[in-house]
TrEMBL record:
Classification lineage: Eukaryota, Sar, Alveolata, Ciliophora, Postciliodesmatophora
Domain of life: Eukaryota
Protein name: Uncharacterized protein
Pfam families: Ras (PF00071)
PANTHER family: RAS-RELATED PROTEIN RAB
InterPro entries: P-loop_NTPase, Rab, Small_GTPase
SUPFAM superfamilies according to UniProt: P-loop containing nucleoside triphosphate hydrolases (SSF52540)
Keywords: GTP-binding, Nucleotide-binding
GO molecular function: GTP binding; GTPase activity
Length: 196
């Protein structure tokens, strides 16, 4: 099993970023929160999405960070994506505030080389469930650091996600340049399918 996205997501991830002001062009706004234990790759994910940069060292995030991009999908739809980078250290303080407004998607991060970050997902899922307003799509993302040995194997994460009725994707933020766009396209595909 390769734990990658399906064809529809792969097609949708072939989107174009629109730079500059696009008044009136946006037909859908999506708010996606990045949550998970410290040092699992949330800020790296955000930086990859906005400026294709991989932070070289772990500087723990201390405040909620927000980035947005306007993208044109292959089908012409223009979507504004807001990514909220929730600091691992203060997530239980930040999340209730963040979820006071509707969030359309949550990415739950763990790192494959660090079992504790995976074991905490159960609690984090329960914690966030309490605050959702409306339907919120969820994705479990296992960040595989190519320079570290796995403590959690992909099949374990796949089984855990299955028990929760969720999808799991294995990513490598350093070596796979398309994976961030694919995660974003995953939420857009869910939203288009089930809410339109
Ligand atoms: N090798 C490798 N390193 C990665 C990957 N993703 C992130 N890193 C590194 O892991 C470290 C931590 O990543 P961050 O993105 O800062 O982690 P975070 O989840 O934002 O952590 P907090 O802000 O403390 O919650 C950084 O040094 C990144 O360069 C990956 O896919 N592969
Ligand atoms: Mg961070």
């Amino acid at each position: 099993m390769d734990y990658s996205f399906d064809n529809q997501v792969l097609e949708l991830s072939d989107f174009t970023k629109l730079f500059g002001h696009t008044p009136g062009a946006v037909s859908l706004s999506l708010k996606i929160a990045l949550v998970g234990y410290p040092a699992t790759g949330k800020t790296t994910f955000l930086r990859k999405f906005t400026d294709q940069v991989t932070p070289p060292t772990h500087i723990p995030s201390s405040t909620l960070d927000l980035a947005s991009e306007v993208i044109r999908m292959p089908n012409g739809l223009v979507v504004e994506v807001f990514l909220y980078d929730v600091p691992g250290q203060t997530q239980y303080i930040e999340l209730p505030k963040l979820f006071a407004n509707r969030c359309h998607g949550v990415i739950y991060f763990f790192a494959h080389h660090y079992a504790y970050s995976f074991n905490r997902l159960e609690y984090l899922l329960k914690f966030t469930e309490k605050y959702f307003l409306g339907n919120c799509y969820k994705l479990i993302v296992g960040n595989q650091f190519s320079n570290r040995e796995n403590e959690i194997q992909p099949y374990e994460a796949y089984e855990f996600a299955g028990q929760k009725g969720l999808d799991y994707i294995k990513i490598d933020l350093v070596n796979d340049s398309k994976v961030v766009d694919q995660c974003i396209a995953y939420f857009i595909s869910k939203f288009i399918k089930e809410e339109s």
